[in-house]
Amino acid sequence: GENVEQHPSTLSVQEGDSAVIKCTYSDSASNYFPWYKQELGKGPQLIIDIRSNVGEKKDQRIAVTLNKTAKHFSLHITETQPEDSAVYFCAAQRRSGGSNYKLTFGKGTLLTVNP
Amino acid sequence: GAGVSQSPRYKVAKRGQDVALRCDPISGHVSLFWYQQALGQGPEFLTYFQNEAQLDKSGLPSDRFFAERPEGSVSTLKIQRTQQEDSAVYLCASSPYGGGTPNEQFFGPGTRLTVL
To answer: In a mutagenesis test of the A interface, which of B31, B46, B47, B56 is the best target, namely the one with the most A β-carbons within 10 Å?
Structure first.
């Protein structure tokens, strides 16, 4: 099955700096890569996603890059703000067993943005 | 509109008790997923429904876990004879479509289960 590795497990940055989180996946059939933000006591919330036919996607301060050959993808947050502090999860998804689109998640990165 | 809701938000059970966790997906969403999230870990897939059909239950850890979605909307995850290792947050997610291209899953707030 799919295996997703995520690094680093914790990341502390100063407000205004950039943050980068990296993930690798094992299943070359995976074709959808979302990033979720989870705040304490809440469910994961999608912040950006990328499909395998695209190399990079940007949405304001957030960008994701995908290298299918190397099977890795990264989240970039620029001009970080204290409200960006949360746990971030990468995930990979592939079609399997008919219409099943289960997500396989990384272990998460605790991002702390210091004012 | 309303998002995915789950109840109860917190559940404390004594070892050996049965529990039932409820998920109300976004209205009209075809796909429904259950995930288990242990402390400090990412969510792990348990089971998947397309409407009322349970198409994948490969992630259920044992036969003590059972899920249903009889009318293709609300879903219940039942755990029989709870064990301490069942303590986790149980997340429900729904998605508009049941086939074709993978798309966003919308997560509920989760139910935190603590087994004493």
So the answer is: B56
